[in-house]
Target: Inosose dehydratase
Amino acid sequence: MLSKERVHLGIAPIAWTNDDMPDLGAENTFEQCVSEMALAGFTGCEVGNKFPKDTVVLKKALDLRGIQVCNAWYSTFLTTAPYEETEKGFIQHIRFLKEMGAKVVGVSEQGHSIQGTDKAIFTEKYVMDDREWELLCTGLNKLGRVAREEGIALTFHHHMGTVVQTADEIDRMMENTDPELVGLLFDSGHLAYCGEDYLVVLKKHIHRVRHVHLKDIRPEMVKKVKDESLSFLQGVRLGAFTVPGDGSIDFGPIFDVLAEHDYSGYVLVEAEQDPAVANPLEYAIRARKYIAEKAGI
Model:
């Protein structure tokens, strides 16, 4: 069982409002989102496109509901743009997170990413050459050092459709970055989606895991995406992702590995779906109950 003192439970706003496809959840307000997060029993959250940018306003709204910002996605373009362009926005981003009390930042390399395009997610993913790998890993080390100076730990988010998606790509990224500067954001759903053994990846890199996304998949929808050469976003609309306890992943062994290695930090439910089909509050409550049963928190 996970330690209630060391491990905290959060949920992402992407179930209520989708940053990549704003029509999904356009009707849902920020206030509804964070109120339902709290109602479902969560105490942490990430940041969505409807969240107030003013930290005073945001803090007040979250404090009223007993919720803490624990992370916020940041897109890097280390393989396709000068490093300085990524760093400039990154500094502003981590200072926002620091002011909100977060301890980690989740970055994803969006250079050459196809996750937001109409390209087939299983057959058109970009593969980096050695020069691009050097740009990525050197840039991540630099950003990790910048983040550490602000008291924030950089975690890298492997993701479908990006240049770091597979187990081999995760291995190479981890081997060529400084463990003191670059951690891993482990996401079970993205690894299961692309056919990797998520438990093997977790065990291999557990000592560098600084943030965890609890994402489940519906295999029949993933198969449809693969068979019909659909895009990542088409898969989301179909319902390829869902919350823990509603898909095919048994999270018990994941929680066991985290507990065995004294994981400290957030485990965060993240499942982008169409909220008109999958009611966010209903699915948040379902996930919360499942995690309580499986992890003891």
